[in-house]
Amino acid sequence: MPRPRTNLDVGLARDLTLPHLDSAYNLARWLMGSPQDASDAVHTAFLRAARYVHTYAGGNARAWWLSIVRNCCLAILSGRQTREVSLDALEADAENLVASEANEPEEQLHLAQSATLVVNELGRLPAEFREVLVLREIEDLSYREIAEILAVPIGTVMSRLARARQMIRKALARGAAHEM
Amino acid sequence: MKCEAARPLLESYLDGELDRAAVDELESHLSTCAACRAELAALERLRTTLRAAPRHRAPADLRRRLAQAGDLPQLEAASHGAFRAGWWAMAASLLLGLALGAGFMGWRAGTPGDDRQLRARDLLTSHLRALAASSPLDVISEDRHTVKPWFAGRIGESPPVIDPKSDEFPLLGGRIDYVGGRRTAVVVYGHRKHVIDVYVTAADPGAGALRMQGYALEPCLLAGQSTWIVSDIDADSLRRFSGLLGCGSQDNRR
User: Is B156 on the interface with A (CB under 8 A)?
Assistant: First the structure.
């Protein structure tokens, strides 16, 4: 049950969040784009975690904490007026990306090995597809953990991950073709 | 197993998320199908490529800031101190009574509008977290005569619990959440597969509905108490629901 003792909140919040600070920062860094924005978002998320630490009901602390980080990132991003694109538009972009590069030769993927290309193309993906790839491939989280963080069913995680992989594959192949 | 059945399983297989029986079936198909093996190899190459992307590590100064400050006020000060330009702009906006453009992160104290946005964001975060939890309810009851005293025994006040007496919007129960650092009563209703949270807030919610991330946040005066309705139901359903609760009218049943 809730205990309204502020110092205790911060202590418990630290126990739950600091072991996963790199995960939190990595997710924020990929979502926000810049180191400063990522640090700010994680700091804000930590304050929220401390305030809401009593809502933590046991279970996976990393998933609980990353869901707060993600919500903070999205809240900050949605507050930005510049580069503001609706989800519908992102969906449409995503469709285009998949549709326009339907039959890129598989071999070109080999050429996409450079980390710079991966970083650029991943950064260009719509946030909802970028985040599943980051959580799965870089943070190495399970479907269940990702579902908890995104607050969606596991089936949605699977379909979004499949779309994301399809999109990044096409994007990498196209990027590799440009480099030639 | 045929290729059409095997292909959708390849990713789950690669991710280690297939159950034993499906793994056996898929592996026996892979042993005879070069095309599916090639697709699996392509997915593995993609994985190798993606894992070349850096995992960013938290900067030492961020870790220090979070690990060392003694309590929340200190941390909040540190959050301001982290970007002095923002801090001075904030001071200026307070002095001049000017609002800065929207954005930043809301820790900047500012106009009532900002404050409202910030509180609404807190509500939405709380709502989303409740949805992500295994159950959004601390007390499960369709009977308002159970829910109301449950709150009274825990937060020392008795929030307006109104039963819309509608199959469309059943009363599910209630929970207590921290919103903006305060314990807050949340009365929970259902609508088909959706959850509707009614947050009983101390602060005046102001007028006009807000939309954030596809969720509606609508202020509603219930029996003289300020509340916010938070849900992802569509606008028509929300209007019917707030009508059934009796938002804004003076004579709703307490």
Answer: no
Q: List the 108-127 stretch of B: residues with Cβ below 8 A of A.
A: 117, 121-122, 124-126
Q: Do B53 and A119 touch (CB under 8 A)?
A: yes
Query: Which residues of chain B neighbour A18 with C-beta distances below 8 Å?
Result: 63, 66-67
What is this model's ipTM?
Answer: 0.77
Residue B234 contacts by C-beta under 8 Å, 6 or more apart in sequence? none
A73 plus A116 within the same structural domain? no
In the three-class reduction of DSSP (H, G, I as helix; E, B as strand; rest coil), residue B11 is classed as: helix
- As a whole number of angstroms, the distance between CA B77 and CA B6 comes to 55
In this structure, the answer to whether residues A75 and A24 fall within a common structural domain is: yes
Q: What is the pLDDT of residues B121-141, one digit of tens each?
A: 788 888 887 776 666 777 777
E runs forming strands in chain B: 139-140, 171-179, 182-191, 194-200, 210-212, 215-222, 225-231
pLDDT tens for B68-95 read: 866 666 666 665 444 444 444 444 444 4
Single-letter amino acid, residue A118: V
Final residue in a domain of this structure, among A25, A55, A79: A79
Question: Closest Cα partner for B98 from B79, B114, B80, B84?
Answer: B114
Chain A contact for B32, CB < 8 A? no
pTM across the whole model: 0.54
Tell me the backbone φ, ψ of residue B48, rounded to 5 degrees: -60, -45
Segments in B20-71 forming alpha helices (H): 20-30, 34-50, 60-68
Report how far residue B31's alpha carbon sits from residue B92's, in angstroms, rounded to the nearest whole number: 70
For residue A10, tell me if it sits in a domain: yes
Range of the domain at A54: 6-79
Q: What are the residue ranges spanned by the domains of chain B?
A: 3-50, 67-110, 111-245
Where does a domain end: A79, A109, A128? A79
Q: Based on the domain organization, do A100 and A163 belong to the same domain?
A: yes
